[in-house]
Amino acid sequence: MCAKKSENLKRLSHEKWEEAWQKHWKKAQLEYELPILESEEYFFLSEQRTAEKEKERLERITAEFEMGFTNLSQLGPAVTIFGSARFKPGEPYYELSRATGRAFAKAGFTVLTGGGPGAMEAANRGAKEAGGPTYGLNIILPEEQKPNPYVNDSFEFKYFFVRKVMLVKYSCAFIVMPGGLGTLDELFEAATLIQCHKIGPFPLILVGGKFWKGLRDFVGFMAEQGVFSPEEIGFSRIVETPEEAIKMVLSSLPTDFRNSLKQL
To answer: Which keywords, in A-to-Z order, does the entry hold (predicted)?
Structure first.
């Protein structure tokens, strides 16, 4: 049954896509009704956006940036590991992420994640098991995402964009485990920043060739349609093992920086 379901998903037709949109997304996008009580979005959309209110919002955003800068600026050389919140202990991608966190901690890096469950928890867990520093940058969601128990400390963010700045700003490499919408958002933001020379260039590495084959194929299709130039293809390295990822990151670092890493 599972194999049949997987095969059907691989052949996702336009009709199946439309059916899923109608069932799961239409109401959220076209028929939504914001609850009035305790809904910041309701008041934001219905009230006049005065300069005073926008200033209050800006102050909240600034305070969150300051919190991140204060807590993360002294972490030392770090890598960020992105990935799905849905994997369970014992599942292949959970254990791959756990091994990746462990490998980077042993190589002397602080491991940063989004702080939640799944691949994030696994990476923090692997780093902690290796005796390395590891931190979670947790996002506050309507359905609460609790910090996983494998971090030295967890820092909570309300704004996704502030959190993403912190996950990118304090890392010298970005390791992307299999994941869904949030992971793809983080992957493409990092790729865009590198492409536009806003950061780095830093290594951007996808772990798990079988999972990322669909992305590779889709990029090839987009290139055929003219929206990817030849030099934009291959914007990230696809590897199978944590050891390959470690090797690439270490080779990207200046010699004196690489020699300063305290391997465990």
So the answer is: Cytokinin biosynthesis, Hydrolase
Q: What is the mean pLDDT of the chain?
A: 88
Q: Look at residue 217 and tell me whether its pLDDT is greater than 50.
A: yes
Q: What is the pLDDT of residue 49?
A: 72
Interhelix angle for 119-129 vs 92-106, to 10°?
Answer: 40
Specify whether the CB–CB gap between 113 and 139 falls below 8 A: no
Identify the bridge partners of residue 28 per DSSP, sorted by sequence position.
none
Q: Collapsing DSSP states into helix, strand and coil, what is residue 211?
A: helix
Domains of the chain: 62-260 (3.40.50.450)
Strands in 153-157's sheet, in edge-to-edge order, are 153-157, 134-139, 110-113, 78-82, 174-176, 204-207, 237-239
Chain Cα centroid distance, residue 9: 24
For residue 127, give the nearest of 113, 139, 114, 117 by alpha carbon: 113
pLDDT, tens digit, 9 for 90 and up, residues 248-257: 999 999 898 8
**Measured on CA atoms in the order 2, 3, 6, 11, is the torsion positive or negative?**
negative
